[in-house]
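Mods, move this if it's the wrong board.
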Amino acid sequence: MANYKTTTTHSWGSRLGNAVKGIFIGIILFVAGFPVLWMNEGRAVRQTRALKEGESNVVSVSADTVEAANEGTLIHASAQAETADELVLPVLGIRANAIALFAETEIYQWVEHSSSKTKKKLGGSEEEETTYTYEKEWVRQPVDSNSFEDPEARTANKNVGAISESLRDKAVFADNVRFGAFRLTSDIIKRIGEQKPYAFSADTVLPAELGKGATVDGSTVYIPYGAATEGGAAGSSAAPQIGDLRVTVSMILPHEISLVAVQKGDSFVPYVAKNGNTLLLVQDGLRSAQEMFASAKRANTLITWLLRLLGFLLMFIGVKMFFAPLVVLADVVPFLGKIGNIGTSLVAGVVAGVCAVVTIAVAWIAYRPVLGVLLLAVAVALIVLFMKKAAAAKAGAAA
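Not the wrong board. Structure tokens:
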């Protein structure tokens, strides 16, 4: 299918109007950055304290026996997670002794992609050229080609309906999983990993409901939609056709896991820290308590920094949108618009950076005072440095 291009011209007046409207959205984004940063610091501190408390209280035990003396105690143990349950995916004719079975369904469709480039013109108008490309891809949901930009491509997927309910994604978990002398709760079972491809046997006979053309390739079942085509049969990995389905099956087999949880009878419940945070750590393989808590701390740190970045970006984008009308005004002469864009980006970066640091510092004063005061001092130093540089630049310009 050939590429399709469209060219749209946005007048200077319409651009300015949209930029002015965007001011209100920018204010909302900027303001939203403050609670994101504040709540994130509180979350991070609470989780850090809960992990520290849990690490100081955890007791490593053997899972071979249920010791009544450990009732209500935060314990760490490693053992084989195993089950006698037989899980079934009837639509694919699968029965397997496993902790979990997963079926992921995809459909072969035409998919639209687009890329745009803009060119600013003297007078402030902007010309946007968009190129639409069309590729055949395996996707999770049917694609509505009626929305394609190219009129000739809008019938590409027209004959393909919805995926039948019986072939939609499935996740089946064992009800009874043992952990030494203990039994695991459904919450813990769903946290167990080490997902592996399901191996269909060479003499697998697929259910007749899938159709005569259904074939197996490794851990995947191909289900044809159309007729055979030159170069291979529809439904094969060699020559899939629009509307064909493929269902990839994976499973979790019994294996060793490690967990940190509170012993309750012959099972487990999450640990509730003094600050109300809960802990329930599950990892694949044999892991010491120290390793598991170290991993949980790293995860907490990663989440903290990602949310800090989110808060900063909300503030940065908000300030950029607030000053966007100035950039559009300067775009009457494209060269001046570029300078204005760079300038507003720098201002937005400084404003967002200072506001983010101050917000985090104030939050730290509330949650961890010593570090908070130090961070606030850094923020003040940044503000003073920025003001001095601005004053120096102004003095240089005057000279």
